Amino acid sequence: MGDKVSLTSLAAMKAKGEKIVGMVVWDTHMAAIVDRIGVEIASVGDTVGHNLWGQANPLEITLDQMMPVCQAVRRGVRRALVSADFPFGPLQAGPQQAVDAAIRMVKEAGVDMIKLDGAAESPEGVEALVKAGIPVWAQFGVTPQTALAYGMEYKSMNTADAVVPDEMIDRLIEEAKMLENAGASLLDFTNSGPVVGPAVVKAVKIPVIGGFGGGPWLDGRVRMAHAAIGYSAAAVDSDADNYANVGKIAFDALTDCAADIRAGKQIRGATKKR
Q: For the chain, what is the largest distance between any 2 Cα atoms, rounded to a whole number of angstroms?
């Protein structure tokens, strides 16, 4: 499985041009699987409420709800770094509240790192966590509002021929450097695009990883494991270009299982009589 991942080893990977792999996971078994394939980061996303539990509002999930998810992932991981998202609330409430929440996640769930969404708006929160000895993965990037302010069409940001104003590139580089100076160990660059992304990667020493709107121009990528393998009810009727369609596989398998039960047959995998 290799040596345990550290922040130092991630920095070394950037220096050598090796890509960092992160996977968003929410349970022990998926965490163990991604750890076994050798990912560097197992990220506990606060999107578990919306994407797995069916919560209507992505901001609905609470810190209390995040705790058992983090604990489950921690139990499945031996090698990778375990990162946990803050739900909406602690960072927005202020630096001390952010530190209190982070300490709880470290002590009670054993996470290695805290991912702060909207970190560019709260650099003091980044500084407070780092001062408390808690590594930070700081998220920043292009939002619809950012694009509008610079006369950009939001959806055009990720095209190879995107014409990005110099002022916008300068601002994003400035934000990245600000977060690096605040003590962040990693950056999560949302909607980096092939124009701004490489410029930011070159401007900072810490690894720059991206999920939505990222690409091979970054130091690595993070992907929601459930999305990568098509694990959702919607996937049953989808022809999306994922790495698998577990939703369809599960639907077909459970259909066969139900048919065997109704036909009075033994269930596959049941303990056989000796």
A: 75
Q: Does domain 7-228 have CATH number 3.40.190.10?
A: no
Distant-in-sequence, close-in-space partners of 264: CB < 8 Å, separation ≥ 6: none
Per DSSP, 138 falls in state E
- Distances in Å between the Cα of 42 and the Cα atoms of 20, 23, 160, 225, 251 are 11, 5, 29, 10, 27
The DSSP H or E segment spanning 187 is strand 186-190
Burial class (CB in 10 A: 0-12, 13-18, 19+), 155: exposed
pLDDT over threshold 90, residue 236: yes
pTM as predicted:
0.91
Distance CA 135, CA 8 (A): 12
The residue written with tokens 């290799």 in the block is 2
Phi-psi domain of 196 (left: phi exceeds 0; alpha: psi -120 through 50; beta: other): alpha
108-159 pLDDT per residue, tens: 999 999 999 989 999 999 999 999 999 999 999 876 666 777 777 766 666 6
- For 23, the 3-state DSSP assignment is strand
Domain ranges across the chain: 7-228, 234-274
What percent of the residues of the chain are helix, what percent strand, and what percent coil, each to the nearest 5? 45, 15, 40
